[in-house]
Design a protein that fits this description.
Strand 3 and strand 4 form a beta hairpin. The protein contains 4 helices and 31 strands. The model has no long low-confidence stretch (mean pLDDT 85). The protein has 410 residues and is mainly beta. It has 3 domains: 75 residues, Immunoglobulin-like; 215 residues, Thrombin, subunit H (Beta Barrel), CATH 2.40.10.120; 77 residues, PDZ domain (Pdz3 Domain, Roll), CATH 2.30.42.
Length: 410
Amino acid sequence: MRKTIKKIILIILLSIIYSYTLTIEAIPTSITIFEGEKLKIPTIAGININNQENQQIITASTKEGESTLRKVGVTKLKVNLLNNIPIKNVNVDVLPRTKVIPIGSLAGVKLYTSGVLVVGMSEIKGEDEKDYKPYENTGIKEGDTIIEINNTNIATTEELITEVNKSEGKDIRIKYIHEQESLECSIKPVKTGKREYKLGLWVRDSAAGVGTVTFYSQENNSFAALGHGIQDIDTDQLINISSGEFVTTKILGINKGSKGNPGRIQGTLEGQQNIGTITQNTKFGIYGKVDNISSINIDKTKELEVATRDEIKTGKAQILTTLENGKTENYEIEIEKIYKDNNYDNKSMKIKVTDKNLLEKTGGIIQGMSGSPIIQNNKFIGAVTHVLVNEPEQGYAIFGDIMLKQLYKN
């Protein structure tokens, strides 16, 4: 009986320790919020968040672990256990409430990778008519990025081909990135023809597409677009870029969406004007600097404040989007659900297109509309990001504050 009681007590103690460990690990060391925005930090009994004056600002009894910091700038907070035992520090960067200009114009995206992206592997036939897999047992996988061959930087597919052919079949040393870790391996190219050697790897060094410019920030001459990152079509991974271009695009046509078949805007990037330079490709959108402000339709009198999440309500809102060349229009949507605590992906709100004109033209949300800004109560609240394939009139949107915070990281 005593052994059973001891086991129960031990299990309870371990469960408590585990709960505290998970809670402590869930508290980030760096947080960015806007002036007036509620600071939300997970906590349980015995774990308190104190300011620099050692005053408790968040405890387990604070509603949802919320507090509002009003001082713009970096505030250092202390996480304490039982008031006296320091656990970790949290730096909170409070940004001033700011305004942006919602855009809604369609634009073309050109991305150039850091190194060359491995998008596939295939068996190759050597000059001797035998089949080879030179990449086997090297550790290289689809989605990895090759950045060096024999200490020579590789930026393009052509550079990789040149270096491989220079090997004349001798082992080469490859440096590559796998899941953000830099690794090296040795690989022996196979001769497939006169002065031609291959690794059996399919690679890519660029990507292109169309999307919507979400907003322009006059404060730092920057733009945000898409609301989601650009992933490689073969690997489904976010493309790690070295540089990129944002250009105007000419709409060629619209494929209307239907249940199970998402539509898309067809556009061309050929012969178009430069808009700016892309510096970030993130899961929350693409960001960069505007070089040619006249290339997109910017009305500086239409600056809007970025809404905090508490200001966003379910109900009617509008999106700005472009379906005809040079013509950006407002369309009615309904915000059905709001996921206020979501900081981890770009599905912050569930939305539904209710505008009859938009439904007639597109069938709902279609590819190319990602990034279309959403306005509610004369404030910028977010951008369209996804369509529900089986319900094309419905989809998801990202909070505007997430996009703006990402821009500040630029």
